[in-house]
Design brief:
The termini are far apart. The protein is α/β, with parallel strands linked by helices. A 5-stranded parallel β-sheet has the order 3-2-1-4-5, with helices on both faces. It has a single domain, classed as HUPs (Rossmann fold). The chain is built from 5 helices and 5 strands, in the order E-H-E-H-E-H-E-H-H-E. It has helices at 16-32, 56-78, 94-105, 119-125, 128-134, and strands at residues 7-11, 35-42, 85-91, 109-114, 140-144.
């Protein structure tokens, strides 16, 4: 582990739990004068419930455009202007893309929310956070989501 942290990654799915993790990442980035990297991963269609009669290329384009708009709003509304911020939207498996980004950008710390899913929801959706915690080559700070944030 390297201190002080110079590059902090905050993956987001634009949910309240991910905003709690983002707030912590912002605080840490300010404390360490670190770069803040925001990453949203648009999941593949087999993970997202899609009506059968949807045109896949159009749907994918609209999903990416919506995610990029949400990312821009996130940066404008929740990130202090004093921070150096890199915001990215990518397509793929969320855990795999978070890990790939961490390695590619030489991230020092990942700050990620847990959604607290259990039972069938965890079986169906898996745990992105769990996969990220098991794999990266840097520390991972998990922020537990309260039930009200879900």
């Amino acid at each position: 582990m390297r201190l002080p942290f110079k590059k902090i990654l905050a993956p987001t799915d634009f949910s309240n739990p991910s905003y709690s993790a983002l707030d912590m990442a912002v605080e840490l980035a300010e404390h360490f004068n670190a770069e803040l990297h925001l990453l949203h991963v648009v999941p593949p269609l087999h993970v997202v419930p899609v009506p059968v009669n949807v045109e896949v290329p159009l749907y994918e384009t609209e999903m990416r455009a919506a995610a990029e708009r949400s990312m821009q709003e996130l940066v404008e509304q929740r990130i202090p202007k004093s921070l150096t911020v890199f915001a990215s939207v990518v397509w793929g498996d969320p855990a795999d893309e978070i890990i790939a980004y961490q390695k590619e950008k030489d991230i020092d710390l990942i700050v990620i929310a847990t959604h607290g899913r259990s039972g069938w929801k965890r079986w169906v959706f898996g745990s992105v956070t769990e996969k990220v915690v098991r794999t990266p080559t840097c520390p991972v700070l998990t922020i537990n989501a309260s039930q009200e944030e879900e």
